[in-house]
Amino acid sequence: MATIVHSAHMDIFQNLALRYPNSHTHYFSCAILYLFVEANSEAIQEQITRVLLERLIVNRPHPWGLLITFIELIKNPQYKFWDHDFVHCAPEIEKLFESVANSCMVVKSKSQQQQQQQQQQQQQQMSNVGESEIAECN
User: Fold this and answer.
1) For residue range 44-87, what is the model confidence (pLDDT) as tens digits?
2) Which of 27, 28, 63, 65 has the lowest tally of Cβ within 10 angstroms?
3) Class assignment of domain 13-114?
């Protein structure tokens, strides 16, 4: 009986890594995120998170793919990361997640936030004007 360690599947995963920007990193990042969202057990999601977090709490620099994968996991509501019990199992763990999340994500200055809000308002106004013109034509 062959073990999984010496299988073609494991050869693929051992040679792929979350490193610099390339198609292999993108594929592996998507695979990790897919496994997270499709996991039928919170234990699997916790294990994926633990591995990513262990790599992030060591000294910098962090591999690009690792950062992108973790940021996508915590920011994208599709993954419901902050709703999982393992994120809130202890105050220390929750603070650790928040600390890592804050250090990974770029914090926008107030002026950048105001500019983004103005752009969103302008886009909303433009779409409202376009909708009213379409309604007038009908």
Assistant:
1) 999 998 888 888 888 788 888 988 998 899 888 899 988 999 88
2) 27
3) mainly alpha
